[in-house]
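Re: [ENG-882] Designed sequences occasionally contain unexpected residues at chain ends

Forwarding the minimal case from QA. Structure tokens:
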């Protein structure tokens, strides 16, 4: 089945002013007039499934391409929907305009979104169980704990470099970490995007400057950059949580074969790390299909429901 990457018409679902990121051309047919990207009409033998993900959040990027490969082999047509904020994903899921979010943090980080939209979202299962929000600094920076940031704002120019404003990590930093460690007033949380944060981190390390950034695990940047995770003695960033596949309500009824495949996916640290590294670093943009082929060749038994041939 052919893959389609496009920007669908989510205007009805996102009437509150949320907008989609443009993400390339549509090489296949259009969605129906109501903007519903799911369903069996107009798709492949088993229907069309839209995966919504944020490209700069590479947990979802890597699992989206893994699911694209596996669902295509089952006979589904897969549409890849690039979005810019978690709020867009949860709104799209709740309204049925996005069929799946392939890497959600619903237990802690996105708990507010689940409280708001959860009645219209189906949890399709967890694929990884050791995800954590973190703060990090270069290894040469002489602090070991978030508590050590207190009274040391001058070391970091009074800034904590964050990611997207709508991220759960941003909310946790603003609402929990900064008041818990009395950082308000001394530090400004600078938000923009994950890629901008990584650019700031790379530049600071190149110049041997001190910098503190918001990060998370698993994330390839933890090994690609010379950084260390700061201890969080007060637990302000929360406990480890599982990463889940979320679907729009009724997903498993509409796409039973897909739901069965998805429920069987559980990755350990080694498997998840290899998947993300291959998609993001070894192969990179434009070669995601090759990265998934390489991952499945190296880990042919990565999960119980793995599909090896197109149906």
């Amino acid at each position: 089945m052919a893959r389609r990457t496009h920007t669908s018409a989510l205007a009805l679902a996102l009437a509150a002013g949320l907008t989609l990121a443009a993400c390339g051309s549509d090489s296949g047919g259009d969605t129906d007039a109501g903007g519903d990207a799911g369903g069996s009409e107009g798709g492949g033998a088993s229907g069309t499934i839209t995966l919504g993900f944020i490209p700069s959040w590479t947990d979802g990027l890597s699992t989206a391409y893994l699911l694209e490969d596996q669902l295509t082999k089952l006979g589904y047509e897969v549409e890849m929907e690039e979005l810019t904020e978690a709020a867009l994903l949860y709104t799209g899921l709740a309204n049925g305009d996005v069929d799946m979010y392939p890497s959600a943090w619903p237990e802690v980080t996105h708990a507010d979104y689940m409280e708001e939209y959860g009645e219209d979202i189906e949890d399709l299962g967890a694929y990884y169980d050791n995800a954590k929000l973190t703060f990090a600094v270069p290894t040469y920076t002489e602090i070991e704990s978030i508590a050590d940031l207190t009274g040391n704002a001058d070391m970091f120019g009074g800034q904590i470099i964050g990611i997207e404003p709508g991220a759960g990590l941003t909310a946790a930093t603003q609402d929990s970490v900064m008041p818990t460690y009395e950082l308000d007033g001394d530090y400004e949380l600078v938000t923009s995007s994950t890629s901008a944060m990584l650019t700031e981190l790379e530049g600071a390390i190149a110049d041997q400057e001190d910098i503190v950034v918001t990060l998370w695990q698993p994330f390839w940047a933890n090994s690609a950059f010379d950084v260390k995770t700061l201890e969080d003695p007060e637990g302000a960033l929360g406990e480890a949580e599982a990463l889940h596949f979320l679907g729009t309500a009724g997903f498993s009824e509409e796409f039973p074969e897909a739901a069965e495949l998805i429920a069987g996916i559980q990755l350990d640290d080694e498997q998840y790390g290899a998947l993300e590294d291959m998609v993001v670093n070894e192969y990179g943009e434009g070669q995601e299909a090759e990265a998934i082929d390489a991952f499945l060749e190296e880990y042919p038994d990565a999960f119980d429901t793995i599909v090896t041939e197109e149906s």
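QA comment: On inspection the terminal residues look reasonable. The chain is about 35% helix and 20% strand. Proposing we downgrade this to a documentation issue.
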